[in-house]
């Protein structure tokens, strides 16, 4: 790799404060930028909506204290979900048409509350922690099993998340967001690397919300280029909630990523700039029972900057399935109309994230990572003034070159339908 100093733009570009010897240039090219971007895009996106199988969902209580709820048995029916963005415009802002359709699969888990400092591992039972609706709490997703379509297509997963107690439309609700990793694939998912993100709400009746699964698919066994059958739409399960989905990527190889340094000159993270594009993803049953995914990248709708707390040189964990690298991010999304005029911004605090190593069989030696993160929407301006909700980030990135293929989900509290089409 090339070596050399990198300026910290967040500190005014002071070279004296940010020059460090022998820093790897994450923008240099192990393989050409376009090659790495293509490898990152060889993925199947399963955009799903989770509805509880109410008869099977129930709270999990502490035997020593039967009144204390310490987790949930979650049984999900996984439904087809699509979302299309409107063309951004000053008068109409930006809206989304979200449709929920036919059942495509199911999943089962135990979501157990854990101490803030608990090192979660598959199969490791946490100490009893009671639900506290006055604050956010971490939880672990144990015994996760997913099936898509008929037969054996699916996987065993493992992940962690956070609760977000909130008042929504005068009612107390428990929002949740989470990141999971494919631990063992079955059927057509065998030997596939993948990350999934959740955002929605949970109660004793189960989980309602978004499940976005991204599976690396270099051989194309999970994707299709053919048109999918029309969605068999059902009534929206969450009136007053709007979902927006969009993609982040580098404009081209000239758009650089920069290090962020602390006052003592040590690396604290990365400053990333991306282009935002409309992205339509869908999945449906083909050939009778197989679920296939299809995606289409749309026009540019804005830009995004992220301050990512992540030390590439000393990550603090190896990035394996059982020991992912932690990261945090603060994301600012700026949306434009077709004339390039700003219509508003959204800021989200991605306070909890997990990073996993990613290998490309077709590009030996190319370093890459899978990121999954989430957090609350904290601010909006312009068209998005007063926005409330959750954000999830499901990303794959190359390191040297720093190419990106990110997928963001915004779950917006929208009782008046301002963001809905």
Per-chain topology:
Blueprint: H1 15-18, H2 33-40, E1 43-52, E2 58-62, E3 65-85, E4 96-114, E5 138-148, E6 154-168, E7 171-186, E8 194-203, E9 206-216, E10 241-249, E11 258-261, E12 267-286, E13 290-309, E14 325-336, E15 342-358, E16 367-382, E17 389-399, E18 404-413
Antiparallel strand pairs: 1-3, 1-9, 2-3, 3-4, 4-5, 5-6, 6-7, 7-8, 8-9, 10-12, 10-18, 11-12, 12-13, 13-14, 14-15, 15-16, 16-17, 17-18
Description:
The chain has 421 residues and is an all-beta fold. The chain has 2 helices and 18 strands. It has helices at residues 15-18, 33-40; strands at 43-52, 58-62, 65-85, 96-114, 138-148, 154-168, 171-186, 194-203, 206-216, 241-249, 258-261, 267-286, 290-309, 325-336, 342-358, 367-382, 389-399, 404-413. It has an 8-stranded antiparallel beta barrel. Strands 10-12-13-14-15-16-17-18 form an 8-stranded antiparallel barrel. β8 (194-203) and β9 (206-216) form a beta hairpin. The chain starts with 14 loop residues before the first helix and ends in an 8-residue tail after the last strand. Mean pLDDT is 92; it is low at 1-21.
Mean of all residue-level pLDDT scores: 92
N-to-C series of helices and strands: HHEEEEEEEEEEEEEEEEEE
Shape by Cα distribution: globular
Helicity, in percent? under 10%
Largest sheet: 8 strands, antiparallel, barrel
Number of helices in the DSSP assignment: 2
Q: How many strand elements? A: 18
Strand order of the largest sheet: 1-3-4-5-6-7-8-9
N-end to C-end Cα span: 48 Å
Low-confidence stretches: 1-21
Beta-strand portion reads over 45%
Radius of gyration: 21 Å
Q: How would you classify the helix and strand content by structural class?
A: mainly beta
């Amino acid at each position: 790799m090339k070596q050399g100093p990198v300026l910290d733009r967040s500190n005014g570009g002071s070279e004296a404060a940010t020059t460090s010897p022998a820093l790897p240039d994450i923008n240099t090219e192990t393989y050409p930028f376009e090659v790495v971007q293509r490898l990152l895009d060889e993925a199947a996106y399963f955009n799903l909506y989770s509805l509880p199988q109410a008869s099977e969902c129930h709270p999990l209580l502490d035997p020593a204290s039967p009144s204390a709820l310490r987790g949930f048995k979650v049984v999900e029916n996984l439904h087809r979900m699509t979302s299309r963005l409107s063309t951004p415009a000053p008068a109409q802002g930006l809206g989304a048409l979200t449709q929920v359709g036919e059942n495509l699969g199911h999943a089962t888990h135990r979501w157990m509350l854990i101490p803030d400092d608990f090192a979660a591992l598959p199969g490791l039972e946490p100490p009893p922690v009671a639900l506290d609706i006055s604050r956010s709490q971490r939880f672990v997703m144990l015994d996760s099993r997913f099936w898509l379509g008929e037969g054996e297509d699916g996987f065993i997963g493992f992940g962690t998340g956070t609760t977000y107690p909130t008042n929504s439309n005068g009612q107390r609700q428990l929002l949740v967001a989470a990141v999971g990793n494919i631990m063992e694939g079955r059927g057509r998912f065998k030997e596939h690397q993948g990350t999934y993100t959740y955002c929605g709400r949970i109660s004793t009746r189960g989980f309602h919300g978004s499940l976005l699964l991204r599976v690396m698919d270099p051989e194309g066994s999970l994707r299709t280029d053919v048109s999918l059958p029309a969605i068999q739409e059902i009534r929206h399960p969450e009136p007053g909630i709007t979902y927006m989905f969009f993609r982040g990527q580098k404009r081209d190889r000239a758009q650089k990523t920069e290090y962020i340094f602390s006052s003592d000159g040590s690396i604290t993270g990365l400053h990333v700039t991306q282009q935002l594009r409309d992205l339509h993803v869908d999945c449906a049953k083909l050939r009778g029972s197989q679920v296939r995914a299809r995606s289409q990248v749309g026009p540019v709708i804005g830009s995004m900057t992220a301050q990512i707390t992540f030390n590439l040189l000393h990550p603090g964990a190896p990035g394996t399935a059982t020991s992912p690298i932690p990261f945090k991010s603060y994301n600012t999304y700026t949306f434009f109309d077709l004339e390039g005029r700003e219509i508003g911004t959204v800021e989200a605090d991605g306070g909890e994230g997990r990073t996993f190593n990613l290998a490309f069989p077709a590009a030996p030696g190319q370093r890459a990572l899978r990121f999954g993160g989430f957090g609350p929407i904290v601010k909006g301006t312009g068209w998005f003034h007063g926005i409330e909700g959750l954000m999830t980030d499901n990303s794959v990135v190359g390191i040297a070159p720093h190419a990106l293929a990110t997928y963001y989900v915004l779950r917006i509290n929208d009782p008046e339908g301002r963001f809905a089409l």
